[in-house]
Amino acid sequence: RALFYLLLCIPWSSSCPPSCQCTERAGAKAVLCSSRRLEEIPKGIPRDAVFLKLDANSITRIPSNAFGHLSRLEELDLSRNAIEKIDRAAFRGVAAGLRTLDLSSNRIRNVPKEALLALNAKLRLADNPWHCECALQELLWEARLDPDSLQDITCHTAPRQEYVGKPLLQVLDAGVNFCSVRQRTMDVVMLVAMFGWFAMVVAYVICYVRHNRDDARRHRDYLRSLPSSRGRAE
Q1: Span 202-225, pLDDT tens digits
Q2: Which keywords, in A-to-Z order, does the entry hold (predicted)?
C-alpha cells in the first residue's frame, strides 16, 4: 500500500513512453525514441520534454495536435520515417517555442503550407519526393528553411517533365513561377465559366424571343378567325 501511494505522488512529467528513453541534457528533458520501429507518435511523452527524437522509425502521418501538450518543446526530429501526410494543425501548440524541425528523408509530396508557416522553427525538408507546385514555392519563400538543406529539395514530380529531378531552387532561379501557372489556369477556368454563363443567357433570350413571336402569331391567327363586326351587323 505504501508503494501504491508513492507511485501516486510521482508527477506525470517524470513518466516516459515504454519505447523511448528519457534523459536530462543540461537540465532539459530529452526524449529519445530513435529506431524503435514506431508506426505512430507514442503516447505519454512527458509534458516538460524539450528535445524529442523520433527519427528512423516507420511513422506515416502527423495528425492534428500531435504535440499540443508539449509547450516546452524546442527541437523535434522526425527524419528518416515514412511520413506521407501532415495535417494542417499537426504542430499546433508548439509553434511559438519550436526552434528546429527535421522532416528530411520521408515520403512527403506536399504539405499544407499553413502547417509550417505558423512555425518559427528552422525547417529541414530535404530528400522527400516533392511535387513542385505553387504551395511548395510559397513555402520556400516564406518559411525559415535550413540553408544547408535547400539544394536537396528536389522536384520528384512537376507540371513539366523538364523540371523533374532538379533542385527546386535551381528551377526557380531559372525564372519558373509555379504560382503564375496556377493563376493562368484559374484565369482559363474563369473565362470558360463566364463564356458558359454568357451562352446560357443568349440561349435564354433566343428562346424567350421565339416563344413571344409564336404567341403573337397564334394571337393574330385567332383574331383573323373571328367574324368581322360587319358580318355580325348583317
Answers
A1: 666 677 667 677 667 776 666 667
A2: Leucine-rich repeat, Membrane, Repeat, Signal, Transmembrane, Transmembrane helix
pLDDT, tens only, 90-113: 999 998 899 999 999 999 999 998
Question: Would strands 100-102 and 122-124 be described as parallel, antiparallel, or unpaired?
Answer: parallel
Residues 162-199: b if buried by 16+ CB within 10 A, e if exposed: ebeeebbeebbeeebebeeeeeeeeeeeeeeeeeeeee
- Decide if pLDDT at 82 tops 50: yes
Residue with cell 482559363: 188
Q: Report strand pairing: 28-32 vs 21-25.
A: antiparallel
Dist. CA 153–CA 220, nearest whole Å: 77
The structure's pTM equals 0.72
Contact 79, 53 (CB under 8 A): no
Which pLDDT does position 207 carry in this prediction? Answer: 73
For 35-66, b where at least 16 C-beta lie within 10 A, e where not — what string? ebebeebbeebbebbbbbbbbbbebebbeeeb
The residues with which 122 forms a beta bridge, in sequence order, are 100
Which fold is adopted by the domain 21-176? 3.80.10
